[in-house]
Design brief:
Number of strands: 10
Number of helices: 13
CATH class of the largest domain: Alpha Beta
CATH architecture of the largest domain: 2-Layer Sandwich
Strand content: 15-25%
Structural class: alpha+beta
CATH topology of the largest domain: Beta-Lactamase
Strand order of the largest sheet: 2-1-5-4-3-8-9-10-6-7
Number of domains: 3
Distance between the termini: 65 Å
Helix content: 25-40%
Largest sheet: 10 strands, antiparallel
Shape: globular
CATH superfamily of the largest domain: PAS domain
Amino acid sequence: MILRQCRELVEQLAIPALLFELPTIELLALSAPAEALVGAPAKVADVLVDAEAGKERLALLCKGLIDGYSVRVELVGASGTKLPAELNVQRLDMPGAEDLALTIITSIAEKRETKSKSELAEYSKVYSKQEVESPAIIGTLDRDWRITRLSSDAIELLGTRPSDLVGSGFVSWLHPGDLGNVLVGVGNAFNAEASVTLRARLRHVDGTWLPVSMVVVPLVGSDAPEFAFVARSLPGLPNAAAFAAPADRIALLEQRLWRIALEVQAAGIVQGLRRMPDLHRLPQIGELSGRQLEVLSHLLDGQRVPAIAASMYVSQSTVRNHLSAIYHKLGVHSQSELVALVRDLDDPKGQM
């Protein structure tokens, strides 16, 4: 029953998506936009020019060591042409569908990327502002796994200020039982120079453990092998009996698809950190939330308010509110002052 419902929902998606089975990688369903791109293959590997792409991470996904990953590939198009693409592969992980995974094609060359972001934003019509605006810790670690940057969301999620965590060892805040999987996931992310998604538990200041979904991206090209992460609180999954009704199962699947979209977005946020200066030299940077850091990364990419709002699934007024908060926390009064302040961090003349 759940398999049929998953197939039906995927076939109705307005984004290019493929549903497949683990570990056989048998293709079970695809959306109309995906079919228009790649035709009707029997296996996910059949759409790839290089069938080895992402093979190691796929094995980790099948073993349950990671929840998802991204991979840059060339697809075999429906007409036989080669199409550069980025695939985001995620385990569905819901009652009755533990052996199912979804591949979302988020970009086909540069022209496709903007359209894909717009299509992903369709999910925001289904879920509340609270879900879209849920806090997510953005942070970076140095080669010794010390925390070098952290957003202010640590206050809400972990009960402690970022300034109390910066400089401390990340492992001391990670549940010992999750260290092995995190090491495997981070190592694979570095080998592939791409993101992975995994589950972990972070220590709250009161001694309890917070389950999170964590997107990890290596900051390739930095002076040291740093990596960045976005950690979002992971709600407990209901048991299968609680979702016996078809409508409830469809609602749960839609929610999982939305969270996948948020994880895809999170990977994009972290990718933006690659291009940002060393912000920890700003004493006020720990006051910014993850959403405010996201606005800042988009702004430094040259985006204007309407484009930022579209990519963040929020209204333009929400973006302007975030900008006002950033101005206040960093002591500036305009976008031009903000951009100049941050870019001066890369200018040797502006450093003490």
